[in-house]
Design goal:
about 425 residues, alpha/beta, about 30% helix
Length: about 425
């Protein structure tokens, strides 16, 4: 390592130790030379071999064997736009208006869940005022690269802010027509295209000190490829193997810390106390669309494997790994989850999870410890828990609300993005 590289690492270490000493936290190892964030879209934890016997995901298993497997990781929302905004900004996504009865309209300005931070009408879906993960890592000396395959993350929504290189896989030069977004079809966004782009970008890297974010769609696109969900997950496992091979071939694997996570899960054949939406459309958000894998390899974190962690917590974990002080803004308490949906509000605190459908007076309650499959509404047996949850729902609805609500409808561009991933019909016809 040259003199400048040594000075950079020493400076980063000093920042890390100084910041952690002030917080009274256990010091972490020096910041790694590289951080790789792998997001596998629509990936359930229980379909990976580190989480469930009988599953066959050997490449992810190899990462887990050298890492830490978190068993209680949860997406901050059941769709990509919200959960990735939470991961990139460290803030809780919200569609709240200040009233539990009504949510914001669902459109390209609101579906990132960060509208309350917008300071002007024309702000991006993820407003520029919010510091991003990539921006903070760039300031700490990392070269930042994003390779994305999900249409809903494409420019100009704001997810690219802070990346030195941002590559959108399958997007045509023009997106002015429906065909422009339909071109980002399953065949166009396969991992082989993403990994080819990653290899190309890394071959032109200005430094070995980088942050790489790779987003794969293999699990999401299982039905479009005519295969089972389990087979889609195995395809995603091979995508991860391809990425690892790219790094090994360039002598970049050693000295890299991997964060492997998903933006949300998927509903398959589960049945619950109320119907809910199909796939990962939520309304309400059952555990199979929220419980996601989180593997950190090597385990450069002081978080315990059973810690309850949301997407916004992963943001802070990555920054701390890089030696960057990342205090929690305190929007939610430790162990809490609030999913601000268009038709439902979902709240969890420990074993208890409640659901309120907007416009209705009753709140359903499940005991995840006794009933992890969420088959029985026990609200009538625990009125004291329901009352606590109702108070907290009202408080969060007020605290996370947008002021000066934007009443715009879905634009043609919004509809193209939603239709390209099969979401438009679900938003127009929510499940009860």
């Amino acid at each position: 390592m040259g003199t400048m590289g040594f000075a950079r690492r020493a400076s980063s270490l000093a920042i890390a130790l100084g910041g952690l000493a002030g917080l009274g936290c256990k010091p972490l190892p020096p910041p790694p030379e590289r951080i790789v964030l792998v997001v596998i879209d629509t990936l359930r934890a229980d379909h990976l071999s580190p989480y469930a016997e009988g599953r066959k995901t050997p490449r992810i298993e190899a990462l887990a064997q050298n890492g830490r497997v978190f068993t209680q990781a949860s997406s901050s929302f059941h769709q990509t736009t919200m959960s990735m905004a939470a991961l990139f900004t460290g803030r809780v996504p919200s569609l709240e208006t200040g009233s539990v009865e009504k949510a914001l309209a669902w459109n390209g300005k609101t579906w990132c869940g960060m509208r309350r931070f917008a300071q002007e009408e024309g702000a991006a879906c993820v407003p520029g005022e919010l510091p991003r993960l990539a921006e903070q890592l760039s300031k700490a000396g990392y070269w930042t690269v994003g390779v994305v395959t999900n249409t809903l993350l494409f420019q100009p929504l704001g997810y690219d802010q802070g990346f030195d290189e941002w590559v959108e896989i399958g997007r045509l030069a023009s997106s002015d027509s429906t065909a422009g977004y339909q071109a980002n079809a399953p065949r166009e966004r396969e991992s082989k295209h993403a990994n080819r782009a990653i290899a190309s970008v890394l071959d032109q890297r200005p430094t070995d000190h980088f942050f790489l974010y790779a987003h794969y769609m293999e699990a999401h696109d299982y039905s479009s490829h005519g295969v089972s969900y389990a087979k889609g997950v195995r395809r995603a496992d091979r995508a991860v193997g391809g990425l690892i091979e790219i790094l090994r071939e360039r002598n970049l694997f050693d000295g890299t810390v991997f964060f492997l996570v998903s933006d949300h899960g998927e509903r398959l054949t589960e049945r619950h106390f109320t119907p809910g939406g199909p796939k990962h459309f939520g309304n309400p958000s059952f555990e199979e669309v929220l419980h996601v894998p989180l593997i950190v390899s090597p385990p450069q974190t002081d978080k315990e494997p059973d810690a309850y962690l949301r997407s916004d917590d992963v943001h802070r974990m990555i920054l701390r790994t890089a030696g960057i002080d990342a205090p929690d803004p305190g929007e939610l308490k430790e162990g809490e989850l609030f999913v601000s949906e268009q038709w439902y509000q979902t709240y969890r605190n420990g074993r208890w999870k409640s659901y309120r459908r907007r416009g209705e007076d009753t709140i359903a309650l499940v005991d995840l410890e006794a009933d992890p499959a969420e088959k029985v509404d026990v609200s009538g047996q625990h009125p004291e828990i329901v009352a606590k949850h109702e108070r907290r729902l009202r408080e969060l609805s007020e605290n996370l609300a947008v002021r000066g609500i934007d009443r715009t409808e879905l634009t043609p561009e919004d509809k193209r993005r939603l239709r390209a991933l099969g979401y438009l019909e679900a938003e127009e016809n929510p499940a009860r």
